[in-house]
Amino acid sequence: RMREGQEYIYFLTGTSLESVMSSPFLERLKDKGYEVLYLYDSIDEYWTQQYTDHEGIKLMSLSKDSFAFNEQDEKVAKKQMEEARIGIKPLSERIKSVLGNKVERVKLSNRLRSVPMMISAERTGFTANMELIARAQSFTDPNNMAEIKNSSPKKVVELNPYHPLVKRLSELCSEESAEMRLQVEAMIRTMYDTALVASGFHVYDQAEYAERMARLISKSLDLDYEGLREELAEKSKEDLKLAEEDVRKEEQAAQERDAEDARKRKEEEEEIAKERAGAEDQDGEIDLEKLQEAMKMANQGEDGGDEAEVKEEL
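Structure (tokenized):
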């Protein structure tokens, strides 16, 4: 099924069929109608490292920076990139300066169309999917996780010189004001982290990435991010105090209700106890005072007292 002029068996690994099919690395190959193997089983990362050719045709990973089209296409692309490099050079240098040891190098790419930047692995380095597998195998040991983060091969930044964001950022790199330099640096870091996600890599500084995205969104909404954040932080403290006071009052009221209910239950229990005591007296308990009075009357009866009255008392 390889198209005429396709010199390599291209393949792309990932965590699922959907993630592989949506990869921006496929854009130019789809345009050319080239065949690509979609590999999304964990074992694929291992056998493709050993099985490098099939019947004399080399296998080529789209996740590596060693990717290439056929020889004729590469000659054309090389000539094309020489022209584009002139306008993008300031941005390439700034990216390397800002990202430092996170990246091995920055290069212009002839295989991107809709995205400004993608991240690929060096020829001998971990692909994004292989790095994910290594992290999953080491997740129970924090020391192993730190080792993977620190020893992970440096990434290769691939820039699309014909993307408007890349073009504009390159122009802004010539601005000398401190404010603009900080904005360009923030945009570079945000674009790099976004490219990591799109390329399937893990973003280690997720809190920092989220903060930069919040600032970027705020800027697009024309918000005073810092001022509004401080204002809302103060309001949050005030609301927290009010909420704590409301909860305290509710708990106090609940305690008072419980105490009142306990008092009423005690009174009811005492009343019931009194009623039971009275009932027991009526059911046969002897009143000593009445008995003594009856005996006295009985004695009087022997002296001529009224017999019926004595019997009634007894």
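The radius of gyration is 43 Å. The longest helix spans residues 225-282.
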